[in-house]
Amino acid sequence: MVAEAKNNKKKKKNKKKKPDRQAFLANKHDLYQRAVQEPSADNEFMSKLFAQKFQRDAIVMREDFCGTGLLSATWVEEDPQRKAIGYDLDVETVEWGIENNLAKLDDEQRSRVDLRIADVLDAPKDPVDIICAMNFSWWIFKKRQELLEYFRSVRSSLHPEGLFILDIYGGKEAYEEMEEEHEKDGFDYIWDQDAVCGVSDEILCHISFHFPDGSKMKRAFTYDWRRYGMRESQEILLDAGFSKVEVYWEGVDDEGDGDGEFTLTTRAESTDAWIAYLVAIP
Ligand SMILES: C[S@@+](CC[C@H](N)C(=O)[O-])C[C@H]1O[C@@H](n2cnc3c(N)ncnc32)[C@H](O)[C@@H]1O
Question: How high is the pLDDT of residue 2?
Answer without folding.
Answer: 44
